């Protein structure tokens, strides 16, 4: 049996497929992982959770708008009846054809059937959306 000398070219193994490569990387990560330890909350910045974190309640605890726009009820065009900003509790939309301007993060009023993005809306000369 001959041993390789310093002048022999190195031959790389054939490339692994996606599944095999992922499996190898995962194994290396597991081998290098430190054991889980308990730490006070004030000392955990920069650390990784040892298990999934589950909230005790839904966060936020109410439906919020993910865009600036209009919380509408029923078919349009809609009559503007108010404005909702983040941090305020809006009155319900009780009439079809009504809308409130809504900010990102604001509570969606009860009775709203949809949120229309501000970029996808227009206002008529009479002020309807």
From TrEMBL:
Recorded metabolic or biological pathway in which this protein acts: Cofactor biosynthesis; molybdopterin biosynthesis
Gene3D superfamilies referenced in this protein's UniProt entry, alphabetically: Molybdopterin biosynthesis moea protein, domain 3 (2.170.190.11)
InterPro entries in the record: MoeA-like (IPR038987), MoeA_linker/N (IPR005110), MoeA_linker/N_sf (IPR036135)
E.C. code: 2.10.1.1
Protein function: Catalyzes the insertion of molybdate into adenylated molybdopterin with the concomitant release of AMP.
Family the entry assigns: Belongs to the MoeA family.
Official protein name in the record: Molybdopterin molybdenumtransferase
């Amino acid at each position: 049996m001959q041993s390789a000398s310093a002048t022999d070219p190195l031959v790389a193994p054939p490339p692994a497929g996606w599944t095999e490569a992922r499996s190898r990387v995962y194994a290396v990560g597991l081998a290098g992982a430190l054991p889980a330890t308990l730490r006070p909350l004030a000392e955990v910045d920069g650390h990784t959770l040892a298990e999934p974190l589950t909230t005790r309640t839904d966060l936020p605890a109410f439906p919020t708008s993910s865009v600036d726009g209009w919380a509408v009820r029923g078919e349009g065009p809609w009559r503007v009846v108010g404005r909702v900003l983040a941090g305020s509790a809006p009155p319900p939309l009780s009439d079809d054809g009504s809308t409130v301007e809504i900010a990102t993060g604001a509570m969606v009023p009860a009775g709203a059937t949809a949120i229309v993005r501000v970029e996808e809306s227009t206002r008529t000369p009479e002020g309807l959306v």
